[in-house]
Amino acid sequence: MQFHSQIGMSAYHDLLRLLRDAAVSELIGTPVAVTVKGRVFWYDKYRIGNTMGQRYIGPDSAELRDRLERAKTLKAQSEARRREQTRLVRLLRAEGYASTDQRTGSLLNAFARTGVFRLGGTLVGTVAFRHYEGELGVRLGFDQLAQTGDIDIGSFERLSFAVGDTVETPLADVFKSLAFDPVPSLDHTRTWRWSQGGGETLVEFLMPAHRDEGVRDLPALGVSAQALRHLDYLLADPIPAVSLYRSGVLIQIPRPERFAIHKLIVADRRAGGPDAQKAAKDRAQAAYLIEALAELRPDELREACLSAEARGPKWAARMAASLALMPDSAAVLSELRA
Fold first, then answer.
1. Which residues pair with 150 in a beta bridge?
2. Are both 152 and 222 inside the same structural domain?
3. Interior CA angle at 229 toward 227 and 233, to 5°?
4. Which of 21, 27, 65, 204 has the fewest Cβ atoms within 10 angstroms?
5. How far apart are CA 100 and CA 103, in angstroms?
6. Parent domain of 327
7. Cα–Cα distance, 156 to 238 (Å, whole number)
């Protein structure tokens, strides 16, 4: 396990801070707090003629409140901030951080600009895994950087209904502009997958399944999504991250400790099925993060492990089945739980 320098890690978190500042500087009107079922959410409320419009900002936090109080100052600093972002991206590349390829970067940038991540969309899968290089300051080698052409976006169905906002540009138009075609499914009224280049790149939308694993709607994103079990655990309390494309793209990814434990469960679910070959990659990603987190964030890793096991014997059994093939990772987690 190799780590990036302190200079690189500081540059990454400075870049993340600037991108989060930039998001708040785009306010049109007045930020207003709205309470929904005991939770506080912020909206940008503004007048359009004789009516009022609103744009979802995000869930309440001390960090967000601080930025909202400084919104006017942040807007005035936009040009200087943009130049600093470019400088930091250049520094990170010189430090050996992996850039996002043009195909993936252009798609993530389009998603960010139209509001996918602002409205609760979270990158999952291998593309999300690559972004833990910046979050954890770990050096990813060729094996960790290798990926398929799949880009998966997960979101909560209940959040999509609750936010009362939608993407600024319909995603069907975004995909069309990037030469993506909808992938036909059994339900002709819903689209949850798009492909580019004859299937070379595949984008899928996912949501947690609380009943069946069918396809349902995500109104905020204007798409449908495949419901999958265990995904609610992965998507809980996601974190912002930076994709190194152009001057940086603000995205959202799962917490690394939850990603690692979720991969143990997914690997066992895939065993013996049509996606069995992906199970080895799931275990490899889980093992890499478990090793890194055991050194960097052992308490968070332990909590994520215990939280998953507390969800019932089936969860614990799937984790144990994967760990039986990963003795080093099993030993690390056993020591943390002791």
1. 202
2. yes
3. 110
4. 65
5. 8
6. 256-338
7. 11
Q: What is the DSSP letter of 30?
A: E
299 within domain boundaries: yes
Domain end point (choices 225, 254, 283): 254
Cβ proximity of 220 and 119 under 8 Å: yes
Count of domains for the chain: 2
113 and 243 inside one domain: yes
Query: Is pTM, for the whole model, over 0.90?
Result: yes
Pick the last residue of a domain from 216, 234, 254: 254
Short-list 21, 123, 117, 36, CA closest to 74: 21
Residues 6+ apart with CB under 8 A from 195: 180, 181, 183, 201, 202, 203
Identify whether 295 is part of a domain: yes
pLDDT of residue 163: 82
Residues 241 and 327 in one domain: no
Examine the domain organization and report whether 244 and 182 are in the same domain. yes
Record the tokens describing residue 295, joined without a space: 């050194």
227-234: which pairs have CB atoms within 8 A and are 24 or more residues apart? 227/157, 230/262, 230/265, 230/266, 230/269, 230/315, 231/124, 231/154, 231/206, 231/207, 232/156, 232/208, 233/258, 233/261, 233/262, 233/307, 233/308, 233/311, 234/124, 234/154, 234/258, 234/259, 234/262
Task: Determine what percent of the chain falls in helix, strand and coil, rounding each to the nearest 5.
Answer: 50, 20, 30
2 domain residue, yes or no: no
Q: What is the pLDDT of residues 61-94, one digit of tens each?
A: 999 999 999 999 999 999 999 999 999 999 999 9
Confidence bin at 141 (pLDDT 50/70/90) = confident
Amino acid at 327: P
Q: Are residues 230 and 284 in the same domain?
A: no
Whole-number Cα distances in Å, 26 to 59, 63, 78, 115, 252? 17, 16, 10, 12, 18
The C-alpha angle with vertex 217 and arms to 64 and 42, in degrees rounded to 5, equals 15
